[in-house]
Amino acid sequence: MSMVFIYMAMFLVFVALSIPVAFALGLSTALIFAVTDQPLALFAQRLWTGLDKFSLVAIPFFILAGELMSGSGILSRLMDMARLLVGRIRGGLLYINILVSMFFGGVNGSAVADTSAVGSLMIKATRDEYNDPEIAAAVTACSSIVGPIIPPSLPMLIYAFAASNVSIAGLFLAGIIPGVLLGLSMMIVTYYISRKKGYPKDTTNYGFLDGIRILRRFTIAAVLPVIMVVGIVGGIVTPTEAGCLGILYALGIGFFVTRELTRQAVYLALKRTVIISTIVLVMISVANTSTWWLTIEGVPEMLSTFFLSITSNSLVFLLLLLVFYVLIGMFVEQAAAMVMLVPVLAPLATQYGIEPIHFGLFTCLALAFGLVTPPVGLCLFISSSIAGVPVQSVFRTSVPYLVAILAVILIVTCIPSVFLWLPGLFELR
Fold this sequence. Notes:
Layout lengths: L1 H15 L4 H15 L4 H12 L6 H13 L3 H13 L5 H17 L2 H20 L2 H11 L10 H10 L4 H7 L1 H22 L10 H26 L5 H19 L5 H34 L2 H12 L3 H16 L4 H18 L4 H13 L9 H10 L3 H24 L2 H9 L4
């Protein structure tokens, strides 16, 4: 037990020294191997074992498909559709921001990518129109966490590999309704804020032919997530094959339909994919080694005994874990937190009788909340830097949206029947 505390202390010290989480975790594990009776050769073996899964190939494919679609000119098409649907409402640019994040999240599946791409266009437009850069940055940051919830979702893919007992297709289907609820809850907050601050309405008029043209352009972008999700849910393709289909579709659309994808853009997409995939896979590798050592030290059994001594009620367990997730998310990025915690906590959730899909969606959503909370919240920092305003003021403006997001998280936590019926229709529970 004392070695576990030493291990955790080393990890926290390395993180406090601003060492990236993956390297802090790997270095802590290597040192604990060195000072115990575990051979270092076993450390190297476990690193390889963590990556020795063919299904992990899906991760870079999903990332590359999203990157290619981002460079294919689809964002302008998504914005045109959002403007057509909600642009004439008071504060329409804020609604457009939320709706585009819902659309773009279904294509890219990454909250950080959503904040960067949507924020670079919407924050400036909103600031110029409403003279309120804080609200523009706040809406951009908060709405971006819809990306990891509406499928296809990269965090859900990572969770499925970390848990190893949950259906990726089931997770994808389960994320649809909470993703829509997140968007609607933020739109309700926007309604009251827009009326209170008296934001103007957009006076643009769209004719019937304009609507048809915008819908046709939007359909090109909307087809990609449909292909990937339907293919996986229908058992037509594996997640890895779905990623390949997404890449082929993105290349075809970018080069031959929108004609906005260039060889330079493909190179940059490949470069970003390598960087992001490397970070994720290194994290998975070292987390596998760390989890193995913690398991032989009996940490899962200790956690199980601890929680069961507090409560035998599954809802109380989830509420306690929600507080823990929110605190962890304030300091550790979502993907890193999942690969560290899920292998230990998912079996514990099973002991409480919690369905794997319920626990998976709960974990993805609760840890995504940390993306918009200081001190580490990546989406919060990105949006504030784009808007050119202090993070503190963006966070204060974000509070009503954070309350709405927490309300949806509580619904997911307490009333799983709201979303579990959808994967249940396809017998994926």
